[in-house]
């Protein structure tokens, strides 16, 4: 009995029984022609203006001339750079980018406090005029003769590199090296090293000469003993004699 | 743009060369080398003055801060350029993919709408024009 009463009440409020069907009863829909275009403006005087067939129709965004649909590498003329860097495998070390820079430069900068980042974080004092040192100031740079103590000698010493020849050539061309310093272009360590190298090279050349001579003599001996030996000289011997 | 940078580069090279030569002189110092050393030290000051003079010529050259990180790590800064180019190319391809996908979606959507709501779409086309 109770349940029948309840069902009756529910059916009264059910949308099925609503005269408007499932529609919300609040907003009346006068437009059934499909020509709805509504502009809703809020604020002090809210208003609803019917102005066309579609809801929420906005102006499309303006088309930009340059979008990602275009090959931007070609647009900015960077194809050459792209092919330059994508084609070959770049050497990782900084020294391969700056081959003429002396010293070890491939180690992290924060290890020896030489990082560029520290220049930004703690900018050096600037703005002062740079003036040549007076003779009194220069006297502070008077040094004792002799080599550096061992612990300072090999700091930042450049390792043997492949491009020494190029370096040497460049420096020779520039002619900036003061007399007596050429010997140290190859190795920063000191003049002795180069002298040693020179000597070594000299010795090497001498050995080569001696070897050549021995070979020649051997050849001559062989020719003397061979049955085909005519006693004549080889063309090279001709030119020598 | 290349000339001021070239000037700065050659001045820096001269300065570095000067420092290198000082290092050689002091690494095994000879008494007769004092005059040369003094000249070299004055050369350092002159070199710094020359570099300072070039400051105004390179004011408008901007260097990305990330390049400094590469250099500080002992890496070739050209790797940064390469990474930038690679990233730009990847992004370009990605965006182009998105644009193409949206274009296709729009085409499919319009054809489906045309099939289901031909009248409404005709009105829509009339408002929007020939899109």
Automatic annotation (TrEMBL), chain A:
<feature type="compositionally biased region" description="Polar residues">
    <location>
        <begin position="27"/>
        <end position="40"/>
    </location>
</feature>
<feature type="region of interest" description="Disordered">
    <location>
        <begin position="158"/>
        <end position="241"/>
    </location>
</feature>
<keyword id="KW-0539">Nucleus</keyword>
<keyword id="KW-0805">Transcription regulation</keyword>
<dbReference type="InterPro" id="IPR019403">
    <property type="entry name" value="Mediator_Med19_met"/>
</dbReference>
<keyword id="KW-0804">Transcription</keyword>
<comment type="function">
    <text>Component of the Mediator complex, a coactivator involved in the regulated transcription of nearly all RNA polymerase II-dependent genes. Mediator functions as a bridge to convey information from gene-specific regulatory proteins to the basal RNA polymerase II transcription machinery. Mediator is recruited to promoters by direct interactions with regulatory proteins and serves as a scaffold for the assembly of a functional preinitiation complex with RNA polymerase II and the general transcription factors.</text>
</comment>
<dbReference type="Pfam" id="PF10278">
    <property type="entry name" value="Med19"/>
</dbReference>
<protein>
    <recommendedName>
        <fullName>Mediator of RNA polymerase II transcription subunit 19</fullName>
    </recommendedName>
</protein>
<dbReference type="GO" id="GO:0005634">
    <property type="term" value="C:nucleus"/>
</dbReference>
<feature type="compositionally biased region" description="Basic residues">
    <location>
        <begin position="160"/>
        <end position="172"/>
    </location>
</feature>
<comment type="similarity">
    <text>Belongs to the Mediator complex subunit 19 family.</text>
</comment>
<comment type="subunit">
    <text>Component of the Mediator complex.</text>
</comment>
<feature type="compositionally biased region" description="Basic residues">
    <location>
        <begin position="211"/>
        <end position="224"/>
    </location>
</feature>
<feature type="compositionally biased region" description="Basic and acidic residues">
    <location>
        <begin position="1"/>
        <end position="10"/>
    </location>
</feature>
<feature type="region of interest" description="Disordered">
    <location>
        <begin position="1"/>
        <end position="40"/>
    </location>
</feature>
<keyword id="KW-0010">Activator</keyword>
TrEMBL record, chain B:
<keyword id="KW-0010">Activator</keyword>
<dbReference type="Pfam" id="PF09748">
    <property type="entry name" value="Med10"/>
</dbReference>
<keyword id="KW-0539">Nucleus</keyword>
<comment type="subunit">
    <text>Component of the Mediator complex.</text>
</comment>
<comment type="function">
    <text>Component of the Mediator complex, a coactivator involved in the regulated transcription of nearly all RNA polymerase II-dependent genes. Mediator functions as a bridge to convey information from gene-specific regulatory proteins to the basal RNA polymerase II transcription machinery. Mediator is recruited to promoters by direct interactions with regulatory proteins and serves as a scaffold for the assembly of a functional preinitiation complex with RNA polymerase II and the general transcription factors.</text>
</comment>
<keyword id="KW-0805">Transcription regulation</keyword>
<comment type="similarity">
    <text>Belongs to the Mediator complex subunit 10 family.</text>
</comment>
<dbReference type="InterPro" id="IPR019145">
    <property type="entry name" value="Mediator_Med10"/>
</dbReference>
<dbReference type="GO" id="GO:0005634">
    <property type="term" value="C:nucleus"/>
</dbReference>
<protein>
    <recommendedName>
        <fullName>Mediator of RNA polymerase II transcription subunit 10</fullName>
    </recommendedName>
</protein>
<keyword id="KW-0804">Transcription</keyword>
